[in-house]
Amino acid sequence: MPWIVLVIAGLFEVVWASAMKQSDGFTRLWPSVITVIAMFVSFGLLSWSMRVLPLGTAYMVWTGIGALGAFLFGIVMLGETASAMRLAAAGLILVGLVLMKLASS
Hints:
Blueprint: H1 2-22, H2 29-49, H3 55-78, H4 84-104
Helix pairs in contact: 1-2, 1-3, 3-4
């Protein structure tokens, strides 16, 4: 169960990072509200999962999901560049997440 909660926390990190981008420096109300709410949910779920999972593992997985999710959101929804170098870097993050999970089993 802690792993499922951690993944959900990571997904909420993607939500708040994406909403923060849309908030235009917190000048737009609803994206700003979504950012703050998603942050609280994300941090709360991360905190809950850390009761069981090691700090380094939980934090790395949480930030990795957030980084990869925000990266993909930027490409798919915002038309950001998907160069070979950026894709390779994202692939390395993904490999790191998989290895961290395997090392924690």
